[in-house]
TrEMBL record:
Motif annotated as 'HIGH' region, chain positions: 48-57
UniProt gene name: tyrS
Superkingdom field: Bacteria
Location within or outside the cell: Cytoplasm
Subunit annotation: Homodimer.
Annotated Tyrosine--tRNA ligase SYY-like C-terminal domain residues: 349-436
UniProt motif 'KMSKS' region: location: 245-249
Catalytic reaction(s) noted: tRNA(Tyr) + L-tyrosine + ATP = L-tyrosyl-tRNA(Tyr) + AMP + diphosphate + H(+)
Stated name of the protein: Tyrosine--tRNA ligase
GO terms for cellular component: cytosol
Amino acid sequence: MTQPASSPTDHLLDELQWRGLIHQSTDETGLAELLASGQQSIYIGFDPTATSLHVGGLMQLMMLRRFQRAGHRPIALVGGATGMIGDPSGKSEERNLLSAEQLQRNVDGVAAQMRRFLDFDGEAGFTGSNGALLLNNFDWMQGYSYLEFLRDVGKNFPIGAMMGKESVRSRINSDAGLSYTEFSYMLLQAYDFVHLSREHGCRIQAGGSDQWGNITAGIDLGRRMTGEQLFGLTAPLLTTSDGKKMGKTERGAIWLDAERTSPYAFYQYWVHVNDEDVMRCIAYLTEIEKAEYDELAERTEQAAGERAAQKRLAQWMTELVHGDEGLASAERATKILFGGDIGNTPDNELQEIFADVPSQDITADQIEGEGLWIIEALQLAGLCSSGGDARRSVKENSISLNSVRIGDEQKRITRDDFAGRTVIVLRRGKRKYALLKLSSDASPK
RNA sequence: GGGGGUUUGCCCGAGUGGUUAAAGGGGGCGGACUGUAAAUCCGCUGGCUAUGCCUACACAGGUUCGAAUCCUGUAGCCCCCA
């Protein structure tokens, strides 16, 4: 361990090791030798279930990125074909089939996001020889006839082995059952691996631990069809200490797309990671070095209250996914929202800080005369679901307007509350914000 | 096809004909404590410009001064017999 590693590949395996990223692998020594013998290609499949990836896909993207940085060629495979079928692994019931058009939109969206993680054209210090590839299995599956596929591929799949796979066994006797289509999923993914080994010399497939069955199916198929020795590597699943999948909140998944999950919300998600989970996230998802990792672990131990590790994690992730800009705005917003008083912040700054926060336009006449009733305003802003809900929250003293608590449910918002600005900040509880914006067409007097 | 059971609020689940907007739990939302954590504790959790009104216990009717609770029919789920 004290010996400095002699090549990027040695670094790579050591790194995967200390980060705990190797859950299972086939023929470890063989794999190490293969990697040491020269540049390799490694592939991971991505399910195009939406136009954006979410936090759940980060592990995989980072895995490819680590390989690329160590000099290997990453292949991101989007499952245009397999996505039409649906992987039964780890799913309790059959998924709805996506339309071809939807799938194409998803593939496009996901592909664009991958550019933040992988270098596809060999710039940025790479010579180009290990530039990432983005492939879509629809391209080679689309023209493959059923009969031919059965003869070439199906022939090499013993039913006994297929029935033994966990993904099949767990479903076949369940209420949901398992359709023939889903059962066949494995063949498609296995064939992908063989295809990539033939066409791109790719001999390594990685994935989450739930992919083990599919990966080994590909390795078996490779041996039968081409005689080539292929390798598989799985990473642990990223779950929280209470066993749930990371990246999900009550409100749904955390997306990489800024339109779906704002940089601020994304940043906040990481800031809130539990103490028990935060170091694992750093190990799995970032490129923060061992030395700093140890330091952060130490600080979490000593002074958990500082949340140094969470902040560093949030910063690292946000910067990678949303860039300097996204990080800067998330941090600015955080600073005001959790620190300061909104009272004196000038209009333009408020607008910028709250760019992420949901807002609702109101017109000038809504605040003329009697003004806008607070109960109504809360519903307009989306902070409360009904009048009753709004009244309740006001009674609970959990509503504030420009950082001033509102306890009176008769409160009406008038021009005075805007204090010369065009924006008013409503808050419910500790960290739910919404804006009311005086729409520009209404001439402010 | 015959017989029996079941159906409650976001979810699970109690419910005696009469303060039952419906026990209890979960979830959610607030609050306290802390660290924008976890755990814990406390409050709230159908709608309504609201000391009141309306809608609710699968659906439709009925009995009753009064029904989630009793009766009839319809539908869904479950079990037994054929």
